[in-house]
Design brief:
The chain is an alpha/beta fold. The chain is about 40% helix and about 15% strand. The protein is built from twelve helices and 14 strands. A seven-stranded mixed sheet has the order 2-10-9-8-5-3-4, with helices on both faces. It has a three-stranded antiparallel sheet with strand order 11-14-13, with helices on one face. It has a two-stranded parallel sheet with strand order 1-12. It binds pyridoxal-5'-phosphate.
Length: about 375
């Protein structure tokens, strides 16, 4: 029988995630698996918590990687912080805002949404007017909307949410490791991220952090967290304290990968990593514009790590992406929702964000236009 894994090519992953995994992380993943209560493993866990606090700019004690992809982090935040009947506001300008609305609704929350055009950011003035009318238990927004390439103004929204008294929940799946995330300064109470975007790990873990105010809400719940696997009040007993309590077996080798990813980012310098993403984003946009292509998002709101570019008239989306994939070993993303067939989404995430990758992609696109 043939083994399907034997003939896999090394792909250049320049879509909305997963991103290209760096060799140091592949190296980390195949280190010997330890027991999940081995003191050497617990030392790695404790270090991961500190690394995460560093990269998120937070002092939050409850900062842990959840087992599962970014969406598991989303679910973790809602399931721990929402009780049936809570008033929740979701600010929506893309696919991941809609996913948050779906998750919150399934938990029996009273969910309001404030929608903004896809491809444009959330407007703080509109949020302010809305929040003046009603008190919320929780307000949620996506920092880097991967479906459109838009950055939302988290610091400004955070101030408004604080005035309202609600908990502030932010999706930082795509932003962490590619642009500044100031959890404490921006007044964020709960945040989740993922390993497969700018951290350049394979998919599989979701860092989550809760502020003291979020922990208080969790501690004072009237009902049990309705999901056993994601219950942070139980998981916290495995991730802290002098005696660790088994909850579920940690995905040991994935955690090695996350440890190494965070180690690499901190070693390069968190600010240097952010400026590398910005620099190569500008380099990519410049190259695309020289080919006559146009960006979807207005300049001030563009994400460095996710570049939405309009597909020119007469060019077939599917054909171009299939050729990139099959002839060049490059993956880019298509558009979602209203932008399906209308834009390409080019990721410059983590280890993908280097000049040689962009040159290779621009050359391949040029050949097809
Ligand atoms: C990718 C992504 C998610 C979901 O992460 P998965 O790893 O696919 O579960 C959530 N939010 C945003 C903004 C994302 O880009």
């Amino acid at each position: 029988m043939s083994n399907l894994l034997e003939n896999l090519n090394e792909m250049l992953l320049m879509g909305p995630g997963p991103s290209t995994v760096s060799p140091t992380i592949y190296e980390a993943l195949h280190r010997p698996t330890l027991g999940h209560l081995d003191p050497r493993f617990i030392e790695i866990m404790d270090t991961i918590k500190i690394q995460l606090q560093t990269i998120l700019n937070t002092k939050n004690d409850l900062t842990v990687p959840m087992s599962g992809t970014g969406s598991a982090g989303m679910e973790t935040c809602f399931v721990n912080l929402i009780e049936s009947g809570d008033n929740v506001l979701v600010l929506i300008n893309g696919v991941f805002g809609i996913r948050m609305q779906d998750v919150a609704t399934r938990l029996g929350a009273n969910v309001d949404s404030l929608e903004f055009d896809w491809g444009t950011p959330v407007i703080p003035e509109a949020v302010k007017l809305h929040l003046a009318k009603k008190k919320y238990d929780l307000v949620a927004v996506v920092h880097a909307e991967t479906s459109t390439g838009v950055a939302n103004p988290i610091a400004s929204i955070g101030e408004l949410v604080k005035e309202n008294g609600a908990l502030f929940l932010v999706d930082a799946v795509t932003s962490v490791g590619g642009m500044p995330v100031e959890m404490d300064n921006w007044g964020i109470d709960a945040l989740y991220s993922g390993t497969q975007k700018c951290l350049s790990c394979p998919p599989g873990l979701s860092p989550v952090s809760f502020s003291p105010k979020a922990v208080e809400k969790l501690t004072n719940r009237k009902s049990k967290v309705p999901n056993w696997y994601l219950d942070l009040s139980l998981i916290a007993n495995y991730w802290s304290g002098s005696t660790r309590v088994y909850h579920h077996t940690a995905p040991i080798n994935m955690l090695y990968g996350l440890y190494q990813a965070l180690f690499d980012v901190i070693e390069e310098g968190v600010e240097n990593v952010h400026s590398r993403h910005k620099k190569y984003h500008e380099y990519l946009v410049d190259g695309l514009e020289k080919l006559g292509l146009e960006m979807l998002v207005n300049k001030p709101y563009r994400l460095p790590m996710l570049n939405a570019v309009k597909i020119p008239e007469g060019i077939n989306d599917g054909d171009v992406r299939a050729t990139l994939l099959n002839d060049y070993n490059i993956e880019i993303g298509g558009g979602l929702g209203v932008f399906a067939g209308k834009v390409w989404r080019i990721g410059l995430m983590g280890h993908s964000a280097y000049e040689k990758n962009i040159d290779k992609l621009l050359g391949a696109i040029k050949n097809q236009l």
